[in-house]
Amino acid sequence: MSDSNLKIGFELLGSFRLVLPGQNPKELPPRQTNAVLAYLATYSAQRHSREDICRLFWEDAEAENARASLRQATLRIRKYSPLFTQALVTDDSTLCLLKENLETDLALFEANARKGMLEQDPCRSAQLLQSAFELYRGPFLASFQDEWVLEERTRLEALFETLCEHLTTRLEMLGELERAIEVCTRLLQVNSLQEETHLALMRLHAKRGQGHAVKRHYQTYLRLWKKEFPNLPRLPASTISKLITDHFPATKPPTTHSEPVETWLLEETPHKQEELPPEKEKETPEFIVVAEPEPSLVSHRILALGGVILFSFWLWTLLPRREPAPNHFSNDFMTVVSLEKKETQGVISMPYEKLTLDSSPTQILDVKNEKPVPADDDAISAVVVAHFVLLAIVGAMLML
Q1: What is the rounded distance in angstroms from the CA atom of residue 369 to the CA atom of residue 355?
Q2: Where does the chain hold its CATH 1.25.40 domain(s)?
Q3: What is residue 158's three-state secondary structure?
Q4: Which residues contact residue 103 at a Cβ distance below 8 angstroms, ignoring those fewer than 6 apart?
Q5: Residues 237, 265: contact at Cβ < 8 Å?
Q6: Interacting residues of 31 by C-beta distance below 8 A, sequence separation 6+
Q7: Counting runs of H as helices and runs of E as strands, what totals does the chain give?
Q8: Contact 247, 256 (CB under 8 A)
Q9: For residue 306, what pLDDT is reported?
């Protein structure tokens, strides 16, 4: 296939991306050169004067500098691909991108949206509108903030809202309620202040028999409306209750027979899993709710732990203290021992290893009898045992 038959693709809805034949889409950052390229791709059906482009993108620069910057921008654009050699047409006074050499998601989005809204056949209309709905990946040139971009973005958002309203109506007529709910949910992400869309979404939930979904969304709507428009009237509960009673059989109401639907709608909804058809219940993930302890309970535990630490310190102060053992290796002590031995058996010396401490910290050696003498530690043992028993009891109580 010759280069004349190849087309350059542009994705303008959402992030700005360049799609060249045989290559993955390449995202273009919001630079001045890319802004010029996006402008030419958006309005490819007409030629643009160089003066208009310079005033739009280099309004603060001098005329000669602005024209030089535009020339540099066109050179950079041609370096993106050899296809721009034919697609970008310039002369001394004008420049443009040839429409027949381009494919943009913006042009296809607008064409399908307008055709779908004018189509009389519901199935064909829904197909065209669904195609346009899927092409709208996000706001027009989402990463650009030029004035012309903001104006075009506002226009396209309005077109998308109108498209979603028509698509919801078509899908509801065809009985595809689940897809209609997805369209309404997406539309509320773009513009959450459309009261008609909130009402349509609650009506679709009611038609599917999801009374609790109606209640949850109505309470979400009330919170949003109170925050944004505190002085404006809201959809009354009676209007929503009529939606529910119209679509629920009399033998299976969402509330008890003794409770009015208006009162039930205004009650706080606990966080429960949304009602789903039986075939989708298995696909719904389960969520584990971890109950956090109350602040008062936490403070009580902290105080109890502090009390245990202080009591432990007090018990430690009550432990009896042992006097330091005498120095068995002092000269005076050795003299006395030698005299005692000399008077009794006439032994003049005694080995030094017998005058050492035993390995047990609670026993010392009797030098004269050469036998270990245990210390009186009954009081110490009783206090230590009581201490650890009390710690165990308090720790068990804190765990409750």
Answers
A1: 11
A2: 120-143+161-268
A3: helix
A4: 7, 8, 9, 10, 19
A5: yes
A6: none
A7: 15, 9
A8: no
A9: 72
132-to-97, 106, 122 alpha-carbon distances in Å: 24, 9, 15
- Residue pair 105/13 in contact (Cβ under 8 Å)? The answer is yes
> CB neighbours (10 Å) of residue 150?
14
pLDDT band at 269 (very low <50, low <70, confident <90, very high): low
Query: CA 215, CA 254: separation in Å to the nearest integer?
Result: 10
pTM over 0.70: no
CATH 2.60.120 for domain 120-143+161-268, yes or no, is no
pLDDT(244) > 50: yes
Measure CA 249 to chain center: 39
94 φ, ψ to 5°?
Answer: -135, 170
Q: Which of 189, 190, 169 is nearest to 180 (CA)?
A: 169
For residues 252 and 67, the model is more confident at 67
DSSP, collapsed to helix, strand or coil, labels residue 282 as: helix
DSSP at 281:
G
State whether the Cα torsion 29-31-33-35 is positive or negative: positive
For residue 276, pLDDT beyond 50: no
- Report the range out of 219-228, 267-276, 279-288, 300-309 with the highest average pLDDT: 219-228
Asked whether 129 and 116 are in contact (CB, 8 A), the reply is yes
* Range list for CATH 1.10.10.10 in the chain: 3-104
Q: What does 283-332 look like in DSSP terms, one character per residue?
A: GSPP-PPPPPPPHHHHHHHHHHHHHHHHHHHHHHHHS--PPPPP-TT-HH
Instruction: List pLDDT tens digits, range 90-114.
Output: 999 999 999 999 999 999 999 999 9
Do the beta carbons of residue 217 and residue 198 sit within 8 Å?
A: yes
CATH 1.10.10.10 fits 3-104, yes or no: yes
Asked if residue 256 has pLDDT above 60, the reply is: no
Q: How many CB atoms lie within 10 A of CB 46?
A: 9
Q: Which residues contact 90 (CB under 8 A, 6 or more apart)?
A: 74
User: What are the pLDDT digits (tens) for 112-163?
Assistant: 999 999 999 999 999 999 999 999 999 999 999 999 999 999 999 999 999 9
8-11 and 102-104 as β-strands: parallel, antiparallel, unpaired?
parallel
pLDDT bracket for residue 268 (50, 70, 90): low
Separation between Cα atoms, residue 104 and residue 226, nearest integer Å: 41
